[in-house]
Structure formats: structure tokens, C-alpha cells
Write a structure and sequence with these properties.
The complex is a heterodimer of chains A (about 190) and B (about 475). Chain A is built from 5 helices and 6 strands, in the order βββαβααααββ. By secondary structure, chain A is an alpha+beta fold. Chain A has a domain of about 120 residues: Cytochrome Bc1 Complex, Chain D, domain 2 (Orthogonal Bundle). In chain A, a hairpin with a 2-residue loop joins β1 and β2. The two termini of chain A are about 40 Å apart. Chain B folds into 3 domains: about 80 residues, no CATH class; about 180 residues, Oxidoreductase, molybdopterin-binding domain (Sulfite Oxidase, Chain A, domain 2, Alpha-Beta Complex), CATH 3.90.420; about 130 residues, Sandwich (Immunoglobulin-like). Chain B is built from 9 helices and 24 strands. In chain B, strands 5-4-13-8-9 form a 5-stranded mixed beta sheet. In chain B, strands 6, 7, 10, 11 and 12 form a 5-stranded antiparallel beta sheet that branches. The longest helix of chain B is centred in the first third of the chain and has 27 residues. The chains are: A alpha+beta (about 190), B alpha+beta (about 475). Chains A and B meet through β3, α4 and β6 of A and β4, β5, α5, α7 and β13 of B.
Chain lengths: ~190, ~475
């Protein structure tokens, strides 16, 4: 459904006002808004599962361990176990594999997240919580590599970059299904 | 029809002149403020450049007469949030009240009205939520200052003069729309509820919170004003295959959700107005997405970007969070619609009835799938049901206020309400929901609890949250 770029005239309204019909020609497009350049757009990102838009750069778990200790451990724990303390409340990032079908499921990056691209997108976007978006892309790749290797999803030696990250096989990759509601047994 | 000419006597003429002058001063000040900012594109005033304190004291000859800056601050300390404390005269008919407009031109609520939202005590107060005091609410709309909140990175302060919304991705012409641009488009004004899909998440296994504010307070209703996304879509031109739209906020969480294009074109609004004024900061000032009937998290606040795509982005908030993990270990994803639900707000948890006799049971009912068709009320724990009065005209994807007269005989009773929507969907019992989704809450399927709520009244008249 492509709407052409031309400004088209359309007979918008024909309304009777005090007995006399009038018709007004209004534009299909109002022409508001200004063009955006590719350069302006490059400030923004949102990384889908195929990795489109992943920045250049790379990192591995060795570099990531140091960065994690400095930037993340205070809130997510030395061992990525989370920190529920008042004023902190950082999620547990690893563990919980095999727990999803039990009475006490533990949802973490390791046990629950279906895509590694989401981890990169989210850390670049919103972490560290106290200074979001301050890590460089190399640093983000490194911290992501560290979390994934601590979760035993990748080898400690593997390098994460725009090519390798989308290929990471997350344990719960097939754990999601589309919303089947409405639940038909609940109809009158 | 010819109207009779308005005749002013001398006094009325003086008043009219003074009003015109005051308005002119107000307009001049607004114009001066506009000229100070570098965004005065178009013919519409871009709000938000007023420094409120400067404004108060510049305007303030009348205010200064009532309270200086220090005593004003003190007065505010004694009063509940949103109110100012004033001494109560013995007889208000024997002395003059406060001067007109002594509030600086923006009113506050009575110092005797104390209801407030309270915050769910998550460890981190920047990613937390606060609940609307439904038990104290009158009518159908939520006062803007009591609208529930859920933020993942606090409430940002955004200058609307610097704010814009970019629309790009699978479009013919990527565009940036300033607030002025957005307000120039034709607008619509509609009442919709917003409910967080986590509303009631504490209540899956056992009755946990005491009050209806705690169990159901992530629900609020407002009148919203804004532009239909469809108009914006026409402006940028959609490319073939654009099935999803990523919406992004300008807060510290840079919140993102993927929304089906079908929904965006059906009824999505880009809103800047709430209950007759600009959005509250906590509600996304200056711009938010409004997706009628969808779970609250998708109504991206502080909206700054829409990216059209062929696939969803699988953001953190649509994978790690806001997915429904069922007992079998599989999780439902993109469970967007909020289903039919209702709750009795009076009498409700932690209240005490003074004695047997007449009570007007009242509450709210809503559905994300259209209009509320009917509401039934039971006073015997669901054994028998009576149709409730619908006290407000049912509107699309809007709450209704219902009521049901009750003669309490002083014996233990269990009060329930049940909503049926126009699609024929009937609000389920908790047992029905658990039979379908399994019982792994509150860790697993924490979202989308729309079960019938039960309030038990004991012989002493005390009302408690129970599972029916």
C-alpha cells in the first residue's frame, strides 16, 4: 500500500451550511514535517534479530569481564546473580536453565531471552542504569560476550561482532508462541 | 437567528476592558517567550517555555498579597500533595475568601482531599510503578494527577520546543515532526482506559494486597487528544511490506516496543492532550503513543521515534518482560489486548461498613475489545448474579461506572462483579484462568490477570480481599 509522494487534491467535504452547499479542496498530504538525513538517523538504533543495524566493532569475554566488574557488578552482582538491595534492584542475569516449566521459574538472559541481539540492543540503550548509553560499541560487544560466556552460551574465547552476534543460539530460542487469545472457552 | 446586542453598563464595560487588557498581557508574555525560543515554526504557540516560578512572581501582585515565597512553600508542606494549606475560618460567611486568581492562574485541589497514588515498593524507585486510588475515585475519568504510573527509567523533563518525532524505516520519505507540526494536523479527542498488563500480578496465588488500589490500581481512564497515526502514515508514505512499527521513548530507558501496523492504522493515536490540557510529565509529556485496548507498556511515553519494519524487533520489553510464561514452560508473546475485567471499588478491601442496611455497591468495568455489554454483581460469592446499573454511557475501549443497590443483612457476604463485553467474552474466575494457563504465578504468568475479584464482608462489616 504505497502512498505516492505527490500532493493530490481531494474533494474532502461537502457540507450544507445555512442552506448553501460548499465544497472545499483539501490536500491528501499536509506537507508538515521536515526531511531527515541519514546522518541524523544514524544517532538512533534498534537491532532486530537478523542483526541489521549492528554497529562495527567487536569484543570478547576477557575484555568484558573487566568492564562488567567496573560498570555492572555493583547492581547485577559479582557472579551475575543480581542485587535486590534497596535502591539497586538489578536483575539476575544468568542461571535458571530448565526451570521454566516448574512452579518457580527463573527468568534470566540465559534461561529466557530468545535472541542475543536483544541483549546488545538493551545494554547499548538502557545500561548501565545510572549512566545509560555511555559504553562504546566495542565495550558493549565485550560485556555482552562476557554475559553470554558466563551463561555458557558461547565459549570464553569467542568474539562478538555484527556477524557473530546474530548467530548465537540462545537456549530458549523456541520458547515463545504467538498470543492465542481470545480463549474461546471464556465466551458466553 | 439574530442575537440581541450585548449591553454593557459602565461597570461591566470596565471589567470587560480590564479582562481584555489582562488577556493581552498574557498573550504578549506568551509571544515574548516564543520569540526567545528558536523553534517558532508555524503559527502555534509551543508551550513549555514558561518558567513557572518566574511566571508566578511576575504575575504576582495578587499572590504576593496572600503569601510570600517562603510561606507558600511552608503552606504546601502542611497540605496533601496537589493542595495548598489555608487556615480554616470559623465562619466563612463572615470574612472574605481568597482573592480571585490568587493561585497564580492554576488551581489546586482542596486541602481536605488527601488521596494519592502510592508506589509499589520495588527496590529501585526509578523503575517502579504507582497505583491509582480507585477506591476514592468518583465517576469514570481519572484525575490526571492520580493516573497510575509505570516507568523503567524515571520521569524525564523534556522541553517541547526541542522535542520531535521521527518517522522512518519502510516509508517513502523519512520525516521529523516538531510538536508544532504535530499540533497542526487535524486531531481527535477520545476517552480510553489504559491498564498495565501487570495489574494484579500479586494476586495469582493468594489474595496479597489489601486494597483495590493495590489489586487493581494500574488502571486509569482519560480523555486523550492527538493525531491519528494513519494521517502521519499518509504523510510519509508506507512502503509495501511494512508490517510492524517500532515506537521509541525519549526517557532513560529509551523504551521500545514493536506494534503491528494493522493496529497502528486501525486506531493508534499520537497524543499530546489529556483531560483538556497537555499530557502530564508522568504520562509522556509532551507526546505519547495511545493504543486503545493494548497493554499499558505499549503506549510509549515521551515518544520520539517510529520505525516501520517488516518484522518485530524483539526488544527486551517484548521478550524478557511482558510475555506470559505458562505452566508448560512456553511463553505467549505479543499478548497485547487487555480483556474484559471489572472490580467493585465500594465496598472494597480494608473498608468497614458501619452496620447492616442499604449500600450502593459501585465499581468499574472495562474491555480492550470494544464496549462493555453488561455487568453482573453477586453478593453471595458468585452463586447468584444480578444485572448492575451502568451509570455512564458505554464507550469504545473506555471504562464504565456501574452500581448495584444492596440491603446488607449483617451476615457474612462475598461481593463480586463480572463484566461481559460486546464480543460475548465473559470475565473469567481465577480458577478458569488457571485451568487454561497453569499456576506458576507470581513468577511465571504474572501478566493479564483479569479474573473476577472477591471482597468478603464479615459480621463486623470489615471488607477483605479473598479468593472466591
Amino acid at each position: 500500500m504505497s502512498t505516492g509522494d505527490k500532493i493530490l487534491g481531494v474533494l474532502l467535504a461537502s457540507v450544507a451550511v445555512s442552506g448553501a452547499a460548499f465544497a472545499q479542496t483539501m490536500p491528501v498530504k499536509y506537507g508538515f514535517g521536515s526531511p531527515v538525513t541519514e546522518q541524523e538517523l544514524s544517532k538512533y538504533f534498534s537491532i532486530p534479530v537478523d542483526g541489521r543495524g549492528l554497529p562495527s566493532g567487536s569484543g570478547n569475554a576477557t575484555a568484558g569481564a573487566k568492564l562488567y566488574a567496573e560498570n555492572c557488578a555493583a547492581c547485577h552482582g559479582e557472579k551475575l546473580e543480581g542485587n535486590p538491595a534497596k535502591g539497586i534492584g538489578g536483575d539476575k542475569l544468568i542461571g535458571g536453565r530448565g526451570s521454566l516449566a516448574t512452579k518457580t521459574p527463573v527468568k534470566t538472559v540465559e534461561s529466557y531471552w530468545p535472541y542475543a541481539t536483544t541483549l546488545f540492543d538493551y545494554v547499548k540503550r538502557a545500561m548501565p542504569f545510572n549512566s545509560p548509553g555511555t559504553l562504546k560499541d566495542d565495550e558493549t560487544y565485550a560485556v555482552v560476550a562476557y554475559i553470554l560466556s558466563q551463561a555458557k552460551i558461547i565459549q570464553p574465547t569467542e568474539t562478538m561482532d555484527a556477524r557473530t552476534l546474530p548467530k548465537v543460539a540462545m537456549p530458549n530460542r523456541d520458547g515463545f508462541e504467538p498470543d492465542p487469545r481470545p480463549e474461546l472457552e471464556l465466551y458466553r | 437567528m439574530k442575537r440581541p446586542a450585548v449591553i454593557y453598563d459602565e461597570k461591566a464595560q470596565r471589567m470587560a476592558d480590564a479582562m481584555i487588557a489582562a488577556e493581552a498581557r498574557h498573550m504578549a508574555r506568551r509571544k515574548a517567550e516564543l520569540e526567545d525560543c528558536d523553534c517558532k515554526k508555524g503559527m502555534f504557540a509551543t508551550a513549555g517555555v514558561t518558567d513557572r516560578r518566574k511566571f508566578l512572581f511576575a504575575a504576582g501582585s495578587s499572590l504576593a498579597g496572600v503569601a510570600g515565597a517562603a510561606s507558600l512553600a511552608q503552606a504546601q508542606d502542611k497540605a496533601p500533595p496537589g493542595a495548598i494549606h489555608f487556615n480554616v475560618p470559623d465562619d466563612p460567611t463572615k470574612e472574605q475568601g481568597r482573592a480571585v486568581n490568587a493561585d497564580g492562574g492554576y488551581g489546586s485541589r482542596s486541602q481536605f482531599e488527601t488521596e494519592v497514588r502510592w508506589r509499589f515498593p520495588t527496590a529501585n524507585e526509578n523503575t517502579s510503578w504507582s497505583m491509582t486510588p480507585l477506591d476514592k475515585m468518583l465517576g469514570n475519568l481519572t484525575a490526571s494527577g492520580l493516573h497510575f504510573e509505570r516507568h523503567h527509567g524515571g520521569i524525564p523533563t523534556i522541553d517541547p520546543a526541542k522535542h520531535s518525532m521521527i518517522v522512518h524505516g519502510m516509508v517513502n520519505t523519512a520525516k521529523r515532526f516538531s510538536m508544532t507540526d504535530i499540533k497542526r494536523f487535524p486531531s481527535v479527542t477520545r476517552k480510553y482506559f489504559i491498564e498495565c498488563s501487570g495489574n494484579g500480578l500479586t494476586e495469582w496465588n493468594k489474595p496479597t494486597l489489601k486494597t483495590v488500589q493495590g489489586t487493581h490500581g494500574l488502571l486509569s481512564t482519560s480523555e486523550w487528544t492527538g493525531v491519528q497515526f494513519a494521517i502521519i502514515a499518509r504523510e510519509v508514505g508506507l512502503k509495501e511490506g511494512g508490517q510492524w512499527v517500532l515506537a521509541e521513548g525519549a526517557d532513560a530507558a529509551v523504551m521500545t516496543r514493536s506494534i503491528p501496523m494493522e493496529k497502528m492504522l486501525k486506531d493508534a493515536l499520537i497524543v499530546y492532550g489529556q483531560n483538556g490540557e497537555a499530557l502530564r510529565p508522568e504520562q509522556g509529556y509532551p507526546l505519547r503513543l495511545l493504543l486503545p485496548g493494548y497493554e499499558g507498556n505499549t503506549h510509549i511515553k515521551w515518544l520520539r521515534r517510529l520505525e516501520v519494519s517488516d518484522k518485530p524487533f524483539m526488544t527486551r520489553e517484548e521478550t524478557s518482560k511482558y510475555t506470559d510464561l505458562l505452566a508448560n514452560g512456553k511463553a505467549r508473546q505479543f499478548s497485547m489486548e487487555m480483556e474484559a475485567k471489572s472490580v467493585i471499588t465500594f465496598p472494597s478491601g480494608d473498608m468497614k461498613l458501619p452496620g447492616s442496611g442499604f449500600y450502593n455497591i459501585t465499581g468499574l468495568a472495562w474491555t480492550g475489545r470494544g464496549r462493555v455489554q453488561s455487568v453482573d454483581v453477586s453478593v453471595d460469592g458468585g452463586k447468584t448474579w444480578n444485572p448492575a446499573h451502568i451509570d455512564t454511557g458505554p464507550e469504545n475501549i473506555c471504562t464504565v461506572r456501574f452500581s448495584s443497590p444492596w440491603m446488607w443483612d449483617g451476615k457474612p457476604a462475598v461481593l463480586q462483579s463480572r463484566c461481559t463485553d460486546e464480543t460475548g467474552y465473559v470475565q473469567p474466575t481465577l480458577q478458569q484462568l488457571i485451568a487454561i494457563r497453569g499456576s506458576n504465578g507470581p513468577f511465571g504468568s504474572i501478566y493479564h490477570l483479569n479474573a473476577i475479584q472477591s471482597w468478603a464482608v464479615n459480621e463486623a462489616g470489615e471488607v477483605a480481599n479473598v479468593h472466591g
